[in-house]
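Researcher: Batch entry, complex prediction.
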Amino acid sequence: MTANNQIPQERFEEIERFLQGRMSPEEESGFRQRLSADGDLSKEVEDVRILLVGIEESALEERLDAYHGQISVAPATPFYRRAWLAAAVIGFLIIGAWWLLQSAPVNKQLFTEYFHPDPGLATSMGSAENYAFERAMVDYKTGKYNEALKAWKQLQASDTLDYFIGSAYLGLKKSDSAAVYFRKVIADDQSLFREDANWYLGLSLLLENRMTEAIPYIEQSSHNEKESLLSKLKQ
Amino acid sequence: MYLFAMIDKKVSESSPADPGGLIMPSWFNNETTIKEIYMKNYPAAKKYILLNKGTDEQAKDIYQEAFIAMWRNIRLNRFESRNEHSLKSYLLQIVKNKWIDHLRSAQYRNTVLLNDSDVENNIEEPSPEEQERISLIKRHFKDLGDTCKEVLQRFYYNKESLRAIAGIFNWTEATARNNKYRCIERLRKSLQQNQYLDSK
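Model: Structure tokens for the complex:
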């Protein structure tokens, strides 16, 4: 706060317009010239700037719990932006996939359409055991599923490990082995991976052409493509 | 989708220079955008904290702290997001840094060790003086009185017009403008009083 107590209303509102980007280019240019020449004005601008941040931050803090309460009902929206270049690549992929799908059985067509490997974890938990886990995660993320499986199978079992071992098997299209691990995850009530494991177990069964058995698992997942896949399975 | 549009707009409009980064970033000047960023990024933050020995409650607390830190750095032009992905990475990095700080506290020192490679120091922290000034403003703002608080929050955070605020309080627009100024001066006076008492 400046030593000078009060900022006259008109000057305060001028500062406010500047900070909120509401000045015309000409007005802003003139204001900046005064700002660079007038130390008192510069201090007032800094005072008001921090004051407004404090007011807005108070409002934000009061609203965060309300925002949080809406998370569960928020509609799912696509996360990554698709650049025009990516669109061209996707176009080629769609044409290629369409060509492949024409000659495959229905269950394999659906599997190809809906199976996207779990992207893996961005981080690990750091201990010596987890260093090995993380190294194998790098292999998994780059599609070296056999290398990842070899390393992970030497580590102490956990639901995280079971889930990614299942994911690696499914990446290799070894659906029977994948299903064994996804079932272990689903049996663990506390696992964070249960919903995802349901989706991938459903896809594992689909790949084995056990479409009726796949439905209840897909129903229990919360995958954003769940309804779309179910509608095709129930046709 | 809305968020993409806002950020793209910001990037394409970033031609006028803002020496010193004083002017509020226009794309961030909207409650809908802020809420959308909050809601979309929480699941990833929660997953990280739960996978690293945290609880639901801790995930929420850490995320909210990180979100406010991100908000402030954007608001003060210390971080300029180029796209939604960079914004998400930035927010999640603050979450990780805060969670690692938390785990390094005495309570957890002997139980969990996180990988140091998760920590990045390219996130600008506010100076202790600035932190203290903003905390002080927030404390005094809480004691400002309900009407003043509502007027200032509606105008500065919700970006409601003086005409709309006048309608809510059954004032004229000129009265709304004058009352907003009086509320600001009341807050400034309260802060100056605090500074005067501290200096004695």
